[in-house]
Amino acid sequence: LHFSEKISKSDIKNFQWTQKKYRDIYEIKAILDTKKNSIIKPNGISQIKIAQFEPNIVRVVFTDKEYLKTEYKINNNLLTISCKQIDTKIYKNSKKPQNVKKYISKVRVSNDRLIVTNSVNIKNIKRLKVALDNGQKLTIFQIDARLKPFNKKEFKSKYVDEIKVLRYTPQITRIVFADRREIDVKYEIKNNKIFFKVKRLSKKPVKVTKKAPAKIMRPNGKIIVIDPGHGGRDSGAIGYKKYQEKRLVFKVATKAKDLLRQRGYKVYLTRYKDKFLKLKDRTEYANSKNADIFVSIHANSIVKSKQKSVQGVETFFLSPSRSERAKRVAMTENQADIKDKSWYSKSLTSNILVKSNMIASNKLAIDVQKNMLASLNNHYKNVVDMGVRKGPFWILVGAQMPSILVEVGYITHPTEGSRLQNTKYQNLLAKGIADGIDSYFIKNQN
Ligand SMILES: [Zn+2]
Predict the structure, then answer these.
(1) Centroid of ligand 1 to alpha carbon of 395 (angstroms)
(2) Residues with CB under 5 A from ligand 1 (ion)
């Protein structure tokens, strides 16, 4: 049984019923992918039934007239249940197995062929195809013959990734061809020999689409305040084709908020509409909400002479130390509130900067920057990584929690500025920010 995510022992209950028939029952916390129940009638036991027993419990029931014993193994998202031992009485009651004389006497590989030699003439074999989660395609042949313990089980061939010969039930042997590419296996029966001829249909391995990792434990109830920069009479930077920073960052912030709420966080925006806010009020709002982190979203700009050459995504965290570049960006972003300059300057140099917050802010900045880049690089070429920097940002002063300022790109750059107006690009930015926040909380859970 394949599951969409990792399963553990605690997801499984195994018990037996012995009225009339013998039943070995597995209850698994899961949902069946199909509405249909399946009944399998393998050799050796009466039946195996797989059904949705309760909305979130799947039952696998092994039924037989006689006592049977099963055991199971878990390997990540794979559950293998096997009949460990079938009571010998089953054979006493039934007639003598008819195919005792049918056994496989030899298996060998010759170029692109696998040759199976049987003790008697083989009339029919069954073909099955299975695609595994890991991208492997299996072509399975079921032969009505015993596999003797001394038969070789695995074969090497340059025509296919793997060839395995398995004892499926005491009387049935399976030949499995496994490959990451599409393969075609033809067979021909000549008396007591079966010739399998394998051919790869594609040169490239089948691409595996990775599923989201199972059961991500997201820190529930963490509070995030997202601050869309500027607003109202303060339009922020004016970019390529007169695009306004305040509009762009509002869109990205709103998208990030929606994503994070879907993931179970409590998220507030400092502004829900196009409205002017003082820088100080933004962090005060975060403090009043008892936020765990504060993320201010901005877009960058530069003087006309450099507009064609400067672009990129960068994330800042508050620090009094200042590089020339950080100082320049901070100057631009600080302008909205020039009147409160003395308060900010004082705060910057005073003890308001808690050191632990600075370390956490740095970590948060690294995670957000990394994930924004990853998200954008998946779909766009030449996105410039300007990295994580420290800067004297007034907007971050006074936040009593780890806080960062994200510059989603230069709206003054012809290419980046146009991309920033694109909804798909904004979605990717928001996803990157949300992934970064997720990653930060998952790594720093307390
Ligand atoms: Zn700004």
Answers:
(1) 10
(2) 229, 236, 298, 333
Ligand 1: centre distance to CA 231 (Å): 10
Q: How far is the CA of 247 from the centre of ligand 1 (A)?
A: 11
| 168 vs 45: CA distance, rounded Å | 13
Res 414: pLDDT: 94
Of residues 324, 330, 332, the one with CA closest to residue 303? 332
Centre of ligand 1 from the C-alpha of residue 20, in Å: 76
Q: Are 395 and 406 in contact (CB under 8 A)?
A: no
pLDDT score, position 393: 72
For every residue of 122-185, DSSP letters joined together read ---EEEEEEE-TTS-EEEEEEESSEE-TTS--EEEETTEEEEEEEEEETTEEEEEEEESS-EEE
- Which single residue is written with the structure tokens 């005060």? 284
Rounded to 5°, the CA angle 308-310-311 comes to 105
Q: From ligand 1's centre to the CA of 221, what distance in Å?
A: 29
301 C-alpha to ligand 1 centroid (Å): 9
CB 177 within 8 A of CB 183: yes
Is residue 237 a contact partner of residue 414, using CB atoms and an 8 Å limit? no
- Mark 63-81 as b/e (b = at least 16 C-beta within 10 Å): bbebebebebeeeeeebeb
CA of 354 to the centre of ligand 1 (A): 24
The stretches in the chain having pLDDT less than 70 are 18-20, 34-36, 84-100, 133-134, 149-151, 206-220, 319-327, 334-356, 394-395, 397, 445-446
| Residue-level pLDDT at 181 | 86
Provide the pLDDT for residue 322. 55
Cβ proximity of 60 and 52 under 8 Å: no
User: For 251, phi and psi rounded to 5 degrees?
Assistant: -65, -50
353 CA to middle of ligand 1, Å?
22
Please report the pLDDT score of residue 216 as a whole number.
Answer: 46
Cα of 236 vs centre of ligand 1, distance in Å, is 5
